Amino acid sequence: MTNKKLAIALLVSCVALPSLAGAQSSLDELREAAGADAAAVAAPAPTFEPSGQGFDGPEPVSYAGTAVTLWHALGTQIADLGWLPGTGAPSFEEISKRVINASKSRTYPARQAGQPSLFTDPGFIAEFEQATGARFSQGNYTRFLINGEASFEVKDSLIKNARKSLLISSWAFYDDKTGYEAAQMLIAKHKEGVDVKVMIDGIVASSHGKKVVKLMKDAGVTVLEHSDLDRSGDIWHVKVMIADDKYAVAGGMNFGDVYSHKAGSILWRDTDVLISGPGVIEAKKLLGGEWNSQVSARKLGYKSIDVRGPQNADFDGGASRVAVVLQNPPKTSPILTSIVKAMYGATRNINIENAYFVAIPAVTQAVLEARARGVEVNILTNSKESIDSEGKPIVDAMAKCLIPLKQAGVNIYLKQGNMQTLHSKFMTVDGEFADIGSYNLHPRGERIDSEVNVNILDRQAVAQLDAAYARDLAAAKKVVNVKELETKPGLVSQIMSQFFYAQLSQQPKPGDR
Predict the structure, then answer these.
(1) Residue of 322, 324, 284 whose CA lies nearest to 305
(2) Which CA distances in Å does 433 have to 124, 239, 302, 436, 460?
(3) What pLDDT digit, counting tens, does each position of 154-204 carry?
(4) Rounded to an integer, what distance in angstroms lies between the CA atom of residue 267 and that of residue 259?
(5) What is the DSSP letter of 219?
(6) What's the average model confidence in pLDDT over 250-254?
(7) Dihedral, CA atoms, 325, 329, 331, 334, nearest 10 degrees?
(8) Of 494, 391, 397, 495, which is closest to residue 8 (Cα–Cα)?
(9) In the 8-state DSSP scheme, what is residue 329?
(10) Which pLDDT does position 311 carry in this prediction?
(11) For 63-70, which contacts have Cβ atoms below 8 Å and span 24 or more sequence positions?
């Protein structure tokens, strides 16, 4: 490899990192279900004073940790480019072809706008399950948690009232008020005899949450720092919490102030979903299976997780059908297949809210073909002003991939507010289907980041998410003219577009296979 190529790869890897910052039921019902008495129901989740330990402000930057992250990113980027013998990853064109082939159906071809949604056809749903490898379970209660206040009120209550077990997966805990309070609550539950297990990404742990992770480990909480068994530079980006095998919260939020809004002035817009029902057990099987694989392969000495059948069948239950999908790229793409196949099922509208919209060809093709059928497509993503500082270098790439969509009649909306980042990752289709989780519509999702998303069929639940989406659109700026997306990219953006986002150079046309 030439020095020039190495320098380019280093630069690309540095700027291509993800954001490094990163029927309704009440809480009273949750606490009552957990057996809390009247006083506990009325009381908020406990708070813990930082006590001068460095948790009372924004998490300080760890330059050493950032260097470790960049080093791993560099190694992964070089390996994926195939410059060394025995390395290389599928191209975005290859991934797209695989996903399109799994998504387009001869038995249930995409319908023109105005016809019944394919999500009302049991045969299409069965085909959807087969394509994604995740079956819908019935009888689930679901509620979308809009923004950090709602999500962390639920999470804190679930932790506080846990009696048997807590299994938490997160990209990171932060060394701030939110991370500290969560650590203290988990330590308290561990001391009460609750089985507390935490799984975070091992690479990210070198730059985020070093103090709170040490606090938990020193107190005896089992914290597994995940390391991909096949590709050591890949990232565990999964955000799921399971309490007593009865409740699960999944979505885009890590344990940090920008997500929870417990402190600070930078308040990210994010969304989680609360589940109670058989979907919780499916989530536990996926997380527990990954935990057990890590423990076994790396000989960590931690206790394994029993993933056999229901450990607690006392669910709240409801009308939602839920499928939980785990994706570990680059060889398979079940989450992306869920998203793309759902687009081919649309006959009325597709609503997309995603933090980092840099579409690979399969997504662009599916959107363009939906527009060609007359389906309304709405996309909300970050503007140059709203996106977090680490994401700013990709804004030009985002704009570039949005231009052909705008030209095809897609409604493009941009989040407003300086550094008030949109971090949600969800999509709804025809008021019938929702997909939500940690997956960014970004090339990293098909190369580096392991993710968990939840697919939901429930008109009432989807209506709640669509209502939140409408509020987000009302606060956003609608792109009126395609020239608003045309920017003059800087040097870094040009290098990224040429070497990391090469999939943007040739946009597919409607009908391409």
Answers:
(1) 284
(2) 13, 21, 38, 10, 10
(3) 999 999 999 999 999 999 999 999 999 999 999 999 999 999 999 999 999
(4) 7
(5) T
(6) 98
(7) 20
(8) 495
(9) -
(10) 60
(11) 64/206, 64/207, 65/206, 65/207, 65/208, 65/210, 66/20, 66/207, 68/203, 68/206, 68/207, 69/17, 69/20, 69/203, 69/204, 69/206, 69/207, 70/10, 70/13, 70/14, 70/17
pLDDT of residue 107: 97
Contact criterion met (CB below 8 Å) for 234 and 226: no
Upper half-sphere CA count for residue 479 (Cβ side, 13 Å): 26
Q: What is the DSSP letter of 254?
A: -
Rounded Cα distance between 318 and 458, Å, is 10
Quickly state the pLDDT bin for 38 (edges 50, 70, 90).
very low
- pLDDT top residue among 49 and 227: 227
pLDDT interval class at 54 (50, 70, 90): low
Contacts of 358 (CB under 8 A, 6+ apart): 394, 397, 398, 401, 441, 442, 443, 501, 504
DSSP designation for 255: B
Q: pLDDT tens digits, residue range 330-349?
A: 989 999 999 999 999 999 99
Express each pLDDT in 377-399 by its tens digit.
999 999 999 999 878 878 888 99
Interval 408-421 mean pLDDT: 95
3-state secondary structure of 273: strand
Distance CA 209, CA 255 (A): 9
CB under 8 Å to 313, separation ≥6 — which residues? none
Beta-strand pair 247-251/240-243: antiparallel
CA distance 40 to 230: 46
State yes or no: pLDDT of 117 exceeds 90: yes
Q: Which residue has the tokens 């938990």?
A: 216
Asked whether 246 and 417 are in contact (CB, 8 A), the reply is no
Does pTM top 0.85 for this prediction? yes
The token duo for 353 is 């809210």
Helix 491-499 × helix 3-15 angle, to 10°:
100
The predicted-structure confidence for 474-505, as pLDDT tens digits, reads as follows: 999 999 999 999 877 666 555 555 555 554 55
Q: Is 1 exposed, middle or buried (0-12, 13-18, 19+ CB in 10 A)?
A: exposed
The answer to whether 205 touches 236, Cβ cutoff 8 Å, is: no
Query: Scanning the structure block, which residue is given the tokens 């897609």?
Result: 410
Q: Which range (61-70, 255-264, 303-312, 452-461) has the least confidence? A: 61-70
Q: Are 336 and 477 in contact (CB under 8 A)?
A: no
- Give 287's strand partners: none
Place of tokens 């001068």: 52
Backbone Cα Rg of the chain: 22
Peptide bond into 330 cis (omega under 30): yes
Q: Are 445 and 379 in contact (CB under 8 A)?
A: no
